[in-house]
Design a protein that fits this description.
Length: 346
């Protein structure tokens, strides 16, 4: 689900396949099994898929198409494995898990709100969201410290803190983290489907602890990048905190203030490039929402700016006709990452 917004529609940001050059740092190679070409590999990003019966039926073929792409180091699903108006059943989760296990490349999964936070809705089954959150963790994160996929890779996990879905790893000059940050104001929207008119104490406590953990992961990922002199930090999450197609409201975005400030703080202390990949708003977009002069800085009350941060939103829902193939360029290239949208069908 998108972050709660008012209905005023703003102009959609122009779709860009390339970006202006960003500051380059010094490469520091990390362990990367199967990657012989230091500092040069690719990964795939998808999100908000599959939505609805037709997309569910087509999802295996989409997995096949990604599997056919040569030499992917890993793949990432940035959340929302179903639409917000279909039942949040264990059987559905098991079906998606079976497809995730078919990925040849190790698959990192950052959960979205549709698979748990929005499950209170009548059409979704009137489940208690916190019960569905535990179901998601049981199904997809039963083996903390490793990814999904047919050939999982090891990752650092926050399982000890209760958040096995929050993971980080390094790949040849990149420090990478997947954050459990979702739409529906990071699950502070009231659970109206089960009779709640305001956030419950348990709901507020869960959101705060999960956001605390995500911010801790952001800070530790940047710290590792500074220590290793990495070229870039790459973050993944479901929530689009900077949706250009809607006018934001504080009530719909208040949960993200602390995270945005942390990203600005850490980006300012990092000499390399910063990338944030998200889904949620379903429309491909590339921008620099925290650069000097951005209205988002004022909206979130941010101190400072992050001119070195580029945000990329992947296509989803009806627009999920492609996946994003991201290339990590060799040291010395104009920019660390470049990407293109690859159609699932010719």
């Amino acid at each position: 689900m998108r972050i709660l917004r008012t209905s005023a529609l703003a102009a959609t940001a122009a779709a860009l396949l390339t970006l202006p050059a960003l500051a380059a740092g010094t490469a520091a190679a990390a362990e990367a099994p199967g990657q012989a070409r230091e500092g040069h590999f690719a990964f795939a990003v998808i999100g908000d898929v599959p939505y609805g019966a037709a997309e569910v039926a087509a999802f295996p073929s989409k997995v096949d198409r990604i599997n056919a792409e040569p030499e992917l180091g890993f793949a990432v699903h940035v959340g929302d494995i179903k639409n917000g108006s279909s039942p949040c059943t264990d059987e559905y989760n098991a079906m998606i898990r079976a497809q995730f296990d078919r990925f040849v490349a190790p698959l990192v999964y950052a959960p979205g709100d549709n698979e748990w936070a929005d499950c209170h809705r009548p059409a979704a089954g009137r489940y208690h969201p916190l019960e569905r959150l535990q179901a998601v963790r049981s199904t997809f994160f039963a083996s903390p410290g490793q990814t999904l996929g047919s050939r999982p890779m090891k990752v650092e996990s926050q399982a000890a803190q209760g958040f096995p879905e929050n993971v980080s790893f390094r790949r040849q000059g990149l420090s990478i983290a997947a954050l459990h940050v979702v739409g529906s104001n990071n699950d502070l929207v009231p659970w109206s489907g089960i009779g709640e008119t305001s956030p419950t104490p348990d709901q507020v406590a869960e959101e705060r602890s999960r956001m605390d953990a995500s911010i801790d992961l952001v800070r530790s990922t940047f710290a590792a990048a500074r220590q290793k002199h990495d070229r870039a930090v790459v973050l993944f999450q479901q929530a689009d905190m900077f949706d250009p197609t809607f006018t934001p409201t504080p009530e719909g975005s208040s949960a993200f203030n602390r995270l945005v400030q942390a990203i600005v703080d850490e980006s300012g202390r990092f000499d390399g490039e910063v990338y944030l990949f998200d889904g949620d708003s379903h429309r491909y977009n590339v921008d620099q929402p925290l650069a000097s002069g951005s209205p988002w800085l004022t909206f979130y009350g941010v101190r400072g700016s992050a001119d070195n941060l580029t945000r990329v939103t992947v296509d989803g829902e009806a627009n999920a006709t492609n996946f994003l193939e991201v290339t990590v360029n060799r040291p010395g290239a104009e920019r660390t990452l470049s990407w293109k949208r690859i159609p699932y069908a010719p």
